[in-house]
């Protein structure tokens, strides 16, 4: 797998295709503004879109978008940010558009092109940039989905690699830009007490939960062809397994990415008999959802990793919409202590919980003596990162900053994309029927049966209410 050059040059211009779109409105402007506030933005920004916007319209839209996210806007910071913005209008299918882009970035030699556009346009835009002579030193940032199955992922990569080398392609999965996801590496490898426990001899199971307490709402046209497995499991949650289970490695952008891919190669193809699909009642009434749709809004599955460290340890994943709470966590459940004549059996096993969202933190569940009784009880040694640490960069802020610096550590390589699609491919080919579940529940009953013989699904560790 080709690796990026050592000490890549920082970007001298950022070109955002689709700057008038929804993702830019919700994420990009806010992230770039925050980089400006931290004084980490030092290049012009050129927006490209079909809309015939003036630069003043773009700047007004940018401020309104930032304010709509709830981000406080400092006039001096925004003035610096707005001065970086310019606009190119044109059809992505028109070669003249790329000539206008070339003119707008004339003299710049290390551009970053951010394609926050539908994936079916990636190949067209990269071809237009290459024809205009703009890709030689470029880095190109692309959004998921990276295909809808293994074959389409390979086809998409063929389109990109026709003009770009692998080191030039930065595939965003915003979960890898979350500070608590990056904290996993530091907690694992900076604390020597953890390493002796991080194996099949000490760990009984790993549970990963991504719960959303809202439905598809007005996104039926987008969501119905996708479903939970493609939307969050194949990408976000398998990447979390890569962080929690892969081995330490050398530094550099590819050091940890190499090991994540090695880990993915060890994951057994998912077994459809260990896969539960659910659909919340009322989903079929959502605008844009096909009549009688069998798309899952809930997915639960069991995976195994066939290597020395993890052989025999089940990794359980559940993800769904219209569940009771919004929470994303990884819960490492340790084996029970042996029965001893002088202690009552413990009711709850030791656990190490990594909370990704909300209020990122880490919690260690231990056993202590129940006050006034000869019995054990669970105690929590918890840390909420925001209570102890400075304001952290947001995922897109971190990832866009990394892309402009030329740091691809938190981006996904093509071999990683293909391996995660390989893992879930059997579930796409032979999906079980969906089970209906009620909004506000924890999904279909089959999800509870999936963990039979292991600790039941735990309620997520949630922030304390004030």
From TrEMBL:
It catalyses: D-glucose 6-phosphate + NADP(+) = 6-phospho-D-glucono-1,5-lactone + NADPH + H(+). Pfam families: G6PD_C, G6PD_N. Keywords: Carbohydrate metabolism, Glucose metabolism, NADP, Oxidoreductase. Residues 15-179 form the Glucose-6-phosphate dehydrogenase NAD-binding domain. The active site is at 236 (proton acceptor). Transmembrane segments: none annotated. Its EC number is 1.1.1.49. Substrate binds at residues 174, 178, 212, 231, 321. NADP(+) binds at residues 91-92, 144. Pathway: Carbohydrate degradation; pentose phosphate pathway; D-ribulose 5-phosphate from D-glucose 6-phosphate (oxidative stage): step 1/3. NCBIfam families: PRK12853.1-3, zwf. Belongs to the glucose-6-phosphate dehydrogenase family. This is Glucose-6-phosphate 1-dehydrogenase. It comes from Mycolicibacterium sphagni. The lineage of its organism: Bacteria, Bacillati, Actinomycetota, Actinomycetes, Mycobacteriales.
């Amino acid at each position: 797998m080709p690796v990026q050059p050592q000490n890549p040059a920082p970007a001298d211009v950022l070109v955002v295709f689709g700057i008038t779109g929804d993702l830019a409105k919700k994420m990009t402007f806010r992230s770039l503004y925050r980089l400006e506030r931290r004084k980490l933005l030092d290049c012009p920004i050129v927006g490209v879109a079909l809309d015939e916007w003036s630069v003043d319209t773009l700047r007004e839209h940018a401020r309104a978008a930032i304010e709509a996210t709830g981000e406080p806007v400092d006039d001096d910071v925004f003035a610096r940010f707005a001065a970086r913005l310019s606009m190119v209008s044109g059809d992505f299918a028109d070669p003249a558009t790329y000539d206008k882009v070339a003119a707008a970035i004339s003299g710049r030699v290390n551009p970053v092109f951010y394609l926050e556009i539908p994936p079916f346009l990636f190949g067209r835009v990269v071809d237009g940039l290459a024809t205009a002579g703009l890709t030689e030193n470029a880095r190109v940032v692309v959004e998921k989905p990276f295909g809808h199955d293994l074959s389409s992922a390979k086809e998409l990569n063929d389109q990109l690699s026709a003009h770009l080398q692998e080191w030039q392609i930065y595939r965003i999965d915003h979960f890898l830009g979350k500070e608590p996801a990056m904290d996993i590496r530091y907690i694992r490898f900076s604390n020597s007490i953890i390493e002796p426990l991080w194996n099949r001899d000490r760990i009984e199971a790993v549970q990963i939960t991504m719960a959303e307490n809202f439905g598809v709402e007005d996104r039926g046209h987008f969501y119905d062809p996708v479903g939970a497995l493609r939307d969050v499991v194949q990408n976000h949650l398998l990447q979390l397994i890569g962080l929690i289970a892969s081995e330490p490695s050398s530094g550099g952008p590819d050091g940890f990415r190499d090991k994540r891919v090695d880990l993915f190669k060890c994951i057994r193809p998912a077994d459809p008999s260990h896969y539960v699909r659910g659909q919340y009642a009322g989903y079929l009434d959502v605008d844009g959802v096909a009549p009688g749709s069998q798309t899952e809004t809930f997915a639960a599955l069991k995976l195994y990793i066939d290597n020395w460290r993890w052989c025999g340890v089940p990794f359980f994943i559940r993800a769904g919409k219209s569940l009771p709470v919004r929470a994303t966590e990884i819960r490492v459940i340790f084996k029970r202590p042996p029965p001893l004549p002088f202690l009552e059996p413990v009711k709850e096993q030791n656990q190490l919980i990594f909370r990704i969202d909300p209020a990122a933190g880490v919690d260690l569940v231990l056993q202590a003596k129940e006050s006034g009784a000869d019995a054990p009880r669970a105690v929590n040694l918890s840390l909420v990162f925001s209570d102890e640490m400075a304001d952290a960069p947001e995922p897109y802020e971190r990832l866009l900053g990394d892309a402009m610096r030329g740091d691809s550590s938190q981006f996904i390589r093509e071999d990683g994309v293909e391996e995660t699609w390989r893992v879930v491919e059997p579930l796409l080919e032979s999906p079980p029927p969906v089970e209906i579940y009620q909004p506000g529940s924890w999904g279909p009953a089959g999800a509870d049966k999936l963990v039979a013989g292991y600790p039941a699904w735990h309620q997520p560790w949630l922030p304390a209410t004030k």
